[in-house]
Amino acid sequence: MICIRRYYLNIILLLFFSAGCGSGDGSDIFRGQYFGQKPPGIKPELLAPGLISSSDFEYCSGFLQNGKAFIFKRQEYTGEDFSESDFYNSPTLFTELRDDNWTEPTVVPFNDLHPFNFTTAPDSRSFLFTSKCSEEISDNSLKSAIWKVELANDGWGKPQRLGSPINSGTGDSYASMTADGTLYFMSGREGGFGRSDIYRSELVNGEYIISENLRRPVNSEERELDPVISPDESYLIFCADLPGGFGSFDLYITFRNSDGTWTEPVNMGREVNTLHAENRANITPDGKYILFMRGTTEYSDIYWMESKVINKIKNEKRK
């Protein structure tokens, strides 16, 4: 089944490049913001086939610099299932728009921190990632922690490991930021409802205050993973393997009420979720598009869709 899928993906890529013109190497196809692609609708589409989406494993992704830079992880396909160690150690790649052309993806300068589970912030320059490294050593036996680094016009800054109350030393990961700096993240710290819950911490006078558990109905005895918050904090997307889903892990959405509480999470539907796992969502800094990973331990691709799907789900929920 996987071999058949990869055969058809390679055919798609071949047809994609055959439709191009110019140099013939495909580089002239990807011009302008968001790789010069026709924007997707509310139905997910492969992201940039041939440059980003390929027959290798792609997962974790995000746009920076107002859609003119992109960061993602890629693991070479060897015919074998990739392991947890492969996931942590696979390279984090970066491409940017220069002279109206996208550069060949290269490894980020802080790749020795083995970044994973990352998102990009609404300011279009902040990059939040998870690492099992400390400032002194790289050791995959360490508990995961949340880091931040910024991309300025002159390049990447120095990565900074966030302190308490964001990192607890018990396994904290997948941070996502609102436009005003509030952080949402997942954690296995004590006092939660399940093995992994979603937490929130406000930025007050430049400091993060005590992290609060979102509680029910968002958190449950199951694992709530990969939270990504909208820039205006109006909705939250996360992944979970809940009863009644379409497959392995599905994407769910919950909406924030005026009093700060959250609505009952709803499955994002069969156009988004499949028999395979959908996870590691991210929202573009302008809030227009949603990225996510779809795959298994045998394949993985990055998809994107228009965020108007959120209003569609919200309107259907009201009926």
Mind explaining what this structure looks like?
- It is built from three helices and 24 strands.
- With 319 residues, the protein is mainly beta.
- The chain has a single domain (27-318), classed as Neuraminidase (6 Propeller), CATH 2.120.10.
- The strands form six sheets. Strands 2, 3, 4, 5 and 6 form a five-stranded antiparallel sheet that branches. Strands 7, 8, 9, 10 and 11 form a five-stranded antiparallel sheet that branches. Strands 1-24-23-22 form a four-stranded antiparallel sheet, with no helix packed on it.
- A hairpin with a 5-residue loop joins strand 22 and strand 23.
Q: Name the average pLDDT.
A: 88
Count of distinct strands: 24
**Helix-strand makeup class:** mainly beta
CATH topology: Neuraminidase
CATH top level assignment: Mainly Beta
Under CATH, the homologous superfamily reads: TolB, C-terminal domain
DSSP helix fraction: 10-25%
- Quaternary state reads single chain
How are the SSEs placed, and which strands pair?
Elements: H1 2-18, E1 45-46, E2 57-64, E3 69-75, H2 84-89, E4 92-98, E5 101-102, E6 106-107, E7 116-120, E8 126-131, E9 145-152, E10 155-156, E11 160-161, E12 172-177, E13 183-187, E14 197-201, E15 203-204, E16 207-208, E17 212-213, E18 225-229, E19 235-240, E20 250-255, E21 266-267, E22 277-283, E23 289-295, E24 300-306, H3 309-318
Short description:
The protein contains 3 helices and 24 strands.
